[in-house]
Amino acid sequence: MVGLSTEEYSRYARHLILPEVGEAGQLKLRESSVLLVGLGGLGSPIAMYLAAAGIGKLGLVDADQVDLSNLQRQIIHTTDWQHQAKVDSAAAAIKSLNQNVAIETYYERFNALNGLEISRDFDLIIDGTDNFSTRYLVNDACVLLGKPNCYGAVLRFQGQASVFNFDGGPCYRCLFPEPPPADLAPSCAEAGVLGVLPGLIGTIQATEAIKVLLNAGTTLSGRLLVVDAMNMEFRKLNIERNPKCKVCGQHRTIHELEEIETRACEVQPVDGTELPEWTVERFQQLRMSGESHFLLDVREAFEQEICTLGGTLIPLSELEGKLDSVPKNVPLIVHCKSGGRSAKAVDVLRRNGFDNAINLKGGILAWATQIEPAMSKY
């Protein structure tokens, strides 16, 4: 193994004087490889701090492009990188910080077909995802390949962090065997997230990753750290391996990656029929035709102050108590921010006899993107 260069001695000087790291530890970090799945709010601080720490190789997985609404929390990206791949934006930021880091980019979604192949050559995987489907895939890939999983999640003002599948500890499925029902799994786009919270949780994930690679300190394996940023409270919950776990238990039933459909922004009615929905283009044609219709906005009042299509505002939580104010004799177009709450509203309406209720696919964000680009987004 080649020793540290003069430049590296200077760059990592504050690490080198830590007995728990030292030159041997810094060389270990340089020889390590980490796969980061997701380059959003969590992935931003994780990528930067691991690059700063001198991780030898970083794999970056993300299928999205940078959007202006990302920049409230996704600090690795900048305004100039809008509409470009997040993996390219992140790679440029990492290289500007530390050119010694080797970077492999995967401009694709981490899925059942590519997950094992992408993960195979990395020492550790960090879950920076924002959806349950990918979260379970990351966990299962880690278990099947025998790799540690540094987990984090955020929503609104709360966050979680842990280390799964490490040192004999539990995996993510031991804690959460199955994903929650769609109506109990709002996304950050629907529920919001405090911008600094992913920075806090992501930094904890990066800290745990470095400790795992150095085999130093006590990790969060077997413990779930729960953060309440609104009250600045930190709690740790003990978690154990589940002997009946589908992927790491004694009689596991999962032997390969399988896609998990968790449509947090879609609702399937109890009778199994498809909810009717229109694209924003079709709704625009209706408006231009002058045909009579009723537009129902099921967002909150503060959201309507940001941008509006007009229509009648009845928040989803109040809808069932105000059905008398909704007509049944004209097309009833229901919208929210991105389609999740409005789909739930359409389900409620149709179960109450409103066969004219139609969901606006993609909500007001789709309208702003495809029809009215000058409209404010949030």
Question: Describe it for me?
Answer:
The chain is of the alpha/beta class and 378 residues long. It has 2 domains: 32-238, Rossmann fold (3-Layer(aba) Sandwich); 277-370, Oxidized Rhodanese, domain 1. Helices cover 33% and strands 16% of the residues. Strands 3-2-1-4-5-6-7-8 form an 8-stranded mixed sheet, with helices on both faces. A 5-stranded parallel sheet has the order 9-13-12-10-11. Strand 7 (223-228) and strand 8 form a beta hairpin. The radius of gyration is 23 Å and the shape is elongated. The termini are far apart.
Brief descriptors of the model:
2 domains, 14 helices, eight-stranded mixed sheet, Oxidized Rhodanese, domain 1, elongated, 378 residues, alpha/beta, 13 strands, five-stranded parallel sheet
The number of domains is 2
Q: Using DSSP, what is the number of strands?
A: 13
Structural class: alpha/beta
CATH fold assignment of the largest domain: Rossmann fold
